[in-house]
Amino acid sequence: RLSCIRNNIWLASCGVLSSGLAVLSSFGLMLFCGVPFVVTVANAPFLILGVGVDDMFIMIASWEQSLRKKEKSNVKSLLAETYAEAALSVTITTLTDVLAFFIGTWTAFPSVRSFCLYTGTAFVFCYVYTMTFFGAVLVLNHKREQGNRHWLTCMRVDVGKDQAESSCLYNACCIGSCSGQASQPESEHPMTRFFREYYGPFVTDKWIKLLMVLLYGAYLGGSVYGCTQIREGIDLRNLANDDSYVIPYYDDDEKYFSTYGPRIMVAVTESVDYWNESVRLGIESCAQNLE
Q1: Reduced to 3 DSSP states, what percent helix, strand and coil does the chain have, rounded to the nearest 5?
Q2: Neighbours of 127 (CB within 10 A)
Q3: Does any domain span residue 249?
Q4: What is the C-alpha separation between 15 and 130, in angstroms, rounded?
Q5: Which end of the chain is more exposed for a tag (fewer CB within 10 A), N or C?
């Protein structure tokens, strides 16, 4: 936002910080409980960040709607209205995510089990921090705006004759507009107006609804057909980069050696005196007999 008072940079940063705290808490708890940390778990913070930022947007949108409806209300009623609007959505999405990942802990693969444990626990912590830490940050940010304080320095921004006669650059940095007037609460967001006035009437038109049904039917049919084409298995060349030496190795191995069947190895479980010539000859004879 172009207002030094209405700017929510720190609010957004605290939303990201909330996700980071969830990752730290979940990783610390899992490591304390002795759950092994595998390399796939390193991808979990990106998932938590996506969900945490989404919850942050829901909370901020509900808070601003509450401000428009109850502009003169106290902070307690505003926060209660925000939780009434946003907490249900956040709770349901968190429950579905946690359930999906905890079901994944039933897999037979230890690495996948660890990944699901770490990520599912992180979702729980993300929900807790969103409902507690980020709600408190919303209130503190609101008090800063009510006090007409700068977003960076938290110093009070006063508009007087001196400021009104100052340069446009000074007013833009210290007041929020070149006019030298105090920053007023912003009107409805343009994207909100677009979805209400244009997109909503567009998708509710009867021909568009018919087109949506047809498109969904085509999508559903394609999905069912795609499920019938699934084949279980893994191609090792898909695990390497396109320019890796592994790709031509597997290609040549399949081209020249696929007819020879699997490789057989023999493991000797006892200590062997390899310096003894008779023992070496015995091992060589054993290998020849196997061949």
Answers
A1: 70, 0, 30
A2: 22
A3: no
A4: 8
A5: C
pTM over 0.90: no
147 SS3 class = coil
The residue whose two tokens read 């049904």 is 213
CA torsion sign, 175 to 178 to 182 to 188?
A: negative
**Position 118 in a domain:** yes
Which residues in the chain show pLDDT less than 70? 1-2, 71-72, 159-188
Cβ-contact 7, 1 below 8 angstroms: yes
CB atoms closer than 10 angstroms to residue 37: 13
Q: How many separate domains does the chain show?
A: 1
Q: Does residue 289 belong to any structural domain of this protein? A: no
- What is residue 253's three-state secondary structure? helix
Residue type, 241: N
Calpha distance 120→114 (Å, rounded) = 10
Would you say residue 202 lies in a domain? no
Residues 148 and 181: their CA atoms lie apart, in Å, by 12
Angle at 225 between CA 222 and CA 226, to 5 degrees: 85
Domain around 106 = 8-180
3-class DSSP assignment, residue 26: helix
Query: Integer distance in angstroms from the first to the last C-alpha of the chain?
Result: 77
Q: What is the pLDDT of residues 61-117, one digit of tens each?
A: 899 888 887 766 788 888 999 999 899 999 999 999 999 999 999 988 899 999 999
- Cβ partners under 8 Å of residue 91, min gap 6: 127
| Eight-state DSSP code of residue 261 | -
What would the two tokens of residue 238 be? Answer: 């898909």
